[in-house]
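The records we work with from here on pair a chain with its fold. The integers have meaning only within a learned vocabulary of local backbone shapes. A complete example follows; check for yourself that the lines match position by position.

:::
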Amino acid sequence: MGWKTSPWRNSTRLQEGEAASPARAVAEPDGELTRAGFSARLREKCPPGAGLPLLGRLLDFYSVAVLAWALAHRLWGDRWGLLGMVNAWGAWLARTGLLATALRLGRRRSSLLSGGFLAVNLSLLAGYSVREVLARWGRPTPVVGPGQPSLRLMTFNLLKHNRDADAITHVVGEVDPDVVAFQEVTPWLAEQLEARLTARYPYRLWHPHSGSGGLALLSRFPLEETGYWTTPGVEPFALRGTATVDGRQLDIYAVHLIAPAGDHLQSTGLTGNFRLREKQAALLSAEVAERALPAIVMGDFNFTETNDAYRLLTDTLVDAWKLAGQGYGATWPCTLKPFLPFSLFPLLRLDYCFHTASVVAVEARVWRGATGSDHAPLVVEVLL
């Protein structure tokens, strides 16, 4: 730079013969530059924000990318598999996109351009975040009638590679649900849990599977199997038991819709995978409507609320988390098992409890703790 700085002093000397710039005009009689002069020189060389051009461009790029995604999602939904995979992260994209736009709002030269861009983003993304917050503020408080029966439900994807039956038993014992829906029940897990949970649940429906299609329903109340569905060439995806609770019949579904990854992708393709999941969701919705009984539909649905299959179910059923949950309610991934032995904070809400309008959800929460699974159990209290 042509001038020397001493690490032990708050002043700087000009080299001999070097002309002083206006920023160096504030000097002491012995030729030393004062702290004020040094600060002025620094501002001259490095104006505010000059060191962050790359970050600004990245924020701009991300904001535009999220805006493009929001438009594509509104126009086409999950029409193509790749778009559907991106849509699954819609809640995160909406919030981070708004944040990126807001951060750039004060740094643009044109406030009109910045404000207009933020307004467009808000209009497109409000449905993913702001509307949800407003809906939670306005939701009614459930009214409990005299003698109205209640149920504590739990749905839990065990993970087919899970060998920690003791941890699963601990979760069931701590939550103490009246009805449990398990997914990814392997023959080994079914054998282990049958021995551990028989005394707690006298009524049990086991449909183990060597892959990911194993399902089970365990209940304290009388339970009769009334339905079991499998997709040819894929795996079972739903089990229905009809329970009798205080003389009332209640259909309870244990569900595991087709996953967006696995060997079946070779036959379905990514886009076909989304169409198949939507068909499974539509079939369940039609079954509930046809039977016209109070119903609970819970399990691992392998979609988020920004996917089309979610809309197919919520056209006729109620998402219990929307009525009784707090926060986002993410349940996956809790771990990278079986690939890496790391615990993670869940990012996506893949596990749900849906119910008919005649059932009222009063509490919904995600159980946190070590379970040996990549999914967190979902616990819901309902009134019948």
Summary: The radius of gyration is 29 Å. The chain has a mean pLDDT of 84. The longest strand covers residues 236-245.
